[in-house]
Amino acid sequence: MWSTYLLIILLIICVITDLKERKIYNKVLFPFLIIAWIVHAITGGWHGLAEALLGTVVGLWILLIPYLLGGMGAGDVKLLAVIGGLKGISFVLMASIYMALAGGIMAILFIFYRKGFLKKILYLMHGLRHGMRLSLLEENDSVKTTLPYGVAIAAGAIFQAYFPGVISL
User: What residue spans define the domains of the chain?
Assistant: First the structure.
């Protein structure tokens, strides 16, 4: 239960900083990770520490490839690693499934609520109807805008914490 309380505190802090500044800070993440490892070692011995370390590695590996491809920030990767350190391998695996679903929903909503997107769709449909080809993404800035993916990570972790077993592996 202690790990769930720490998880909630961590997620609140990270969501706030990710929304405000698009950053998830190491000075927040690393103390939570060290505390998780220490408490798992104290409460579960070597087995508890091993579970926490493996959870950290699994959480890190889940988002490492998207990070290396430039689609994810390093803070997002480290946040999922800390979640794995706090809650373990099976938790971080399930949370990552919910995280991906939440991230997809966020991306779709973000696209549809972008300034002028619906207007562009209408122009595109009108142009196609009359044989004209129009570019949907005329502005380069619209492609450069980032999503606060820490919010999706938090949503996945919260869902897994409070509704475990909805999807089972």
Answer: 2-111+149-162
